[in-house]
Design goal:
Blueprint: E1 4-9, H1 13-29, E2 33-39, H2 43-57, E3 62-63, H3 67-72, E4 78-81, H4 88-97, E5 101-105, H5 112-121, E6 128-131, H6 138-148, E7 157-165, H7 166-172, H8 180-183, H9 186-203, E8 206-215, E9 223-231, E10 236-244, E11 252-259, E12 262-269, H10 287-295, E13 298-300, E14 305-306, H11 314-318, H12 326-339, H13 347-366
Parallel strand pairs: 1-2, 1-4, 2-3, 4-5, 5-6, 7-10
Antiparallel strand pairs: 7-11, 8-9, 9-10, 11-12, 12-13, 13-14
The structure holds nicotinamide-adenine-dinucleotide.
């Protein structure tokens, strides 16, 4: 496999995690990818990320003073865009215009117009991958595997509830996230786009969405958003996001999918059932506990336990020290470039998830059922 050379644009929270994923792939798996250059308006962050990759791999990374230098470099094949959401369009269209493949942090764009501009700028659809790492998280892969193998029959209904302490978010969030003109609606887009992507992947295209909300549009105080979705294939779902004002230090996610032959239940903490489950005191649990926990989520009609084949999540969990499915997501991006194949989450799928998030918002605001555009 030829080595894919990546330039990283944005060295904040997600940029650093992506750099760690490249570092892990190179140092532990001798993978055919190299992080060759980085840029951030904040040079301290750019140095920190380049330094982290260097310590992991022993290779140096160029720090460039303008994004344009990444786009125009003949030593770079692909650009990893880990910028705040409102900057995705400008960066992705510029990179694609220079013939670079792109990995764009979710959500693909702030608006549908932004998504369409990004899709239009690509010479071929496989040049755009969305860093939708939830799809790569072992727990999500396990659910996809169970649905795909017909373990519960077709999915009749999915119930999802996510409960998050808003104080934890406001403590750790970057300032742009507080501005809905830069980040979009926190529950519907910033957080909700992950869940819309998963539901589109698991239950198919959406026909109609009704929604209601109360409280804030933002992450820093309490709020509630609920969406009821009818899918074109006949499934339905109810999604509830709850931003709790009290401090518990704990994210809680519960997914329940019912089919004619059984159901799938998954519960997790810290938002992602991906092998980095933690107790409220943030003590990391052992791999054995994690695998035991995930493998016990599949139950048949009599509530007897169905043990899922370990390969559907165990390998990914132990190979993803960055967590949240990020190493698998980055590797999928690299393979899509070197083999010229479609990434697991393409630009078209990224747009569909953004459209669903916007339909939830429009339905909540208008009180009318909406079809994603
Ligand atoms: N996949 C996930 O689970 C996940 C989690 C968090 C955030 N995200 C997404 O990742 C993206 C980045 O989020 P984040 O939390 O890393 O934000 P962040 O604020 O931590 O990082 C963004 C970085 O971009 C830099 N930057 C800002 N403007 C720039 C410019 N014009 N040119 C160059 N650098 C610039 C900032 O200095 C900062 O270092 C967002 O779209 C967000 O929605 C994804």
């Amino acid at each position: 496999m030829t080595i894919v050379r990546v330039g990283l644009l944005g060295c904040g929270d997600i940029g650093l995690r992506h750099a760690q994923a490249y570092g892990h792939l190179v140092s532990r798996q001798n993978a055919a990818v190299r992080l060759v250059a980085v840029h951030d308006v904040d040079p301290v962050r750019a140095h920190a990320v380049a330094g982290r990759y260097c310590r992991m791999t022993g290779s140096t990374v160029k720090i460039v003073d303008r994004a344009e230098r990444l786009f125009s470099s003949s030593d770079i094949d692909a650009i990893d865009i880990a910028l705040p959401t409102y900057l995705h369009r400008e960066a992705a269209t510029a990179a694609l215009g220079r013939g670079k493949s792109v990995l764009v942090a979710k959500p693909l764009g702030l608006t549908l117009e932004d998504c369409d501009a990004i899709l239009d700028a690509a010479a071929s659809p496989q040049m755009i991958a969305v860093a939708e790492n939830f799809r790569h998280a072992p727990g999500s892969k396990a659910i996809a595997h169970a649905l795909g193998s017909g373990a519960i029959g077709y999915p009749i209904h999915m119930d999802l509830s996510i409960s998050i302490p808003s104080k934890e978010l406001s403590r750790n969030a970057p300032p742009w996230l507080a501005d809905t003109g830069k980040a979009g609606d926190y529950l519907a887009l910033e957080l909700g786009v992950h869940e819309m992507d998963l539901q589109l992947a698991w239950l198919g295209p959406m026909a109609l969405i009704s929604a209601s909300r109360s409280g804030t549009k933002n992450y820093d105080s309490g709020g509630h958003l609920a969406a009821s979705i009818s899918f074109a294939g006949g499934s339905s779902s109810v999604t509830r996001f709850n931003l709790r004002t009290e401090w518990t230090g704990d994210w809680q996610v519960r997914r329940f999918i019912r089919g004619p032959q059984g159901s799938i239940t998954s519960r997790s903490w810290c938002g992602w059932h991906d092998g980095v489950l933690a107790t409220p005191k943030r003590r990391l649990l052992s791999q054995a506990y994690i695998e035991g926990n995930i493998s016990s989520i599949f139950r048949d009609r009599e509530e007897r336990e169905c043990i899922l084949e370990a390969r559907s999540f165990g390998q990914a969990a132990s190979n993803d020290p960055v967590g949240y499915g990020i190493v698998s997501c980055i590797w999928d991006f690299v393979v899509s470039i070197s083999k010229g194949k479609r990434p697991l989450v393409s630009g078209v799928e990224g747009r569909a998830a953004v459209a669903a998030s916007h339909a939830i918002l429009a339905a909540a605001q208008s009180g009318k059922a909406m079809t994603p555009q």
